[in-house]
Amino acid sequence: MAVRKYEPIWKQLKESNKVSVRVPRPLHPRVIKAVIKEKYNDLGYKLLLGERGKNAKLSYHVQGVVITFQLSHTFGVEDL
Question: Does some domain include residue 80?
Answer without folding.
Answer: no
